[in-house]
Amino acid sequence: MVIVDVKNSLSFMATGAAVVVLLLLLSSACQAQLSSTFYEKTCPNALRTIRSAIRTAIARERRMAASLIRLHFHDCFVQGCDASILLDDAPSITSEKNALQNKDSARGYEVIDKAKSDMEKICPGVVSCADILAIAARDVSEYVGGPSWTVKLGRRDSTTASISLAASQLPRFTASLESLIDLFGSKGLSVRDMVALSGSHTIGQAQCVTFRNRIYSNASDIDAGFVSTRRRRCPASVGNDDGNLAALDLVTPNSFDNNYFKNLMQKKGLLESDQVLFSGGSTDIVSEYSRNPSTFKSDFATAMIKMGDIEPLTGSAGIIRRICSTVN
Ligand code: HEM
Known about the structure:
mainly alpha, Peroxidase, domain 1, Peroxidase, domain 2, two-stranded antiparallel sheet, 2 strands, about 0% strand, binds protoporphyrin IX containing FE
């Protein structure tokens, strides 16, 4: 009799343990999902407050729209969308801000810091810096005439950064089409996503040092008139003019439209990595977007949502930083 009872209680305990394990698995699976209503109960005014900080910044300087979209991209491609790009150098951190692709180039950190300090006033310790980057990218797109989308939320912030991953995972302006396809593919993004996302070069600017080789290359995939215009403020010799800016889209530099793709078809892409999208072989997608602005915009929104989904920290992983540039 006693033996039977022991057996029963053992099997009861085993079933109980199995149920607990199952529940844990289910809950971690649920936590792994980002959700657009994540802050609905914990900070109902989060999105409105962030939007207002972002709008103030763009009203002050319109280019900031471009810089903030790029910041979210440069965050997501390094360790996932975890705000690692915002961390400053510290004893245990070598900041991604100093990687070649970011140094003296990525900008908008102070705008995110301001949005975060506004958030800390209304809901301390609730909204992550990684989510603020994702929300800002959507808000600025909408502001400059690009598409809007529902941002999925619930990302948490990293306690680490990686300058070496930043150097290897952020694309170079000299990259070939094959290497770009591989890189975006490794992040779960298709060629179509990559071409659509590159369409954010319809706004913003690039420094002479990034396109000098292209405009002095005598390459066959560059328009002669475009070359002479761009050479005016970007002389051949390396030096003081390295930082001179040129619009990535020479026709409508301040509005989010499909002119970038029209430019590529006319061999007027500013960066080598822009022009290879057309001359290197993604010709069909480029020409489709050049003819059809609404397809471009809806594909761009879809691709931004996919990009925002790259390896987020969720559940109990990571932290909510109180100041975006440092670990609590
Ligand atoms: C396909 C590979 C890409 C390469 C090689 C590349 C490279 C660059 C370079 C070199 C600049 C100019 C930086 C400077 O001169 O300081 C730039 C600017 C920019 N990039 Fe990209 N990019 C790529 C894809 C993307 C993607 C996927 C996005 C967004 C989703 C993006 C958004 C931007 C924006 C908005 C700017 C203008 C930033 C500003 O004016 O502050 N880029 N990019």
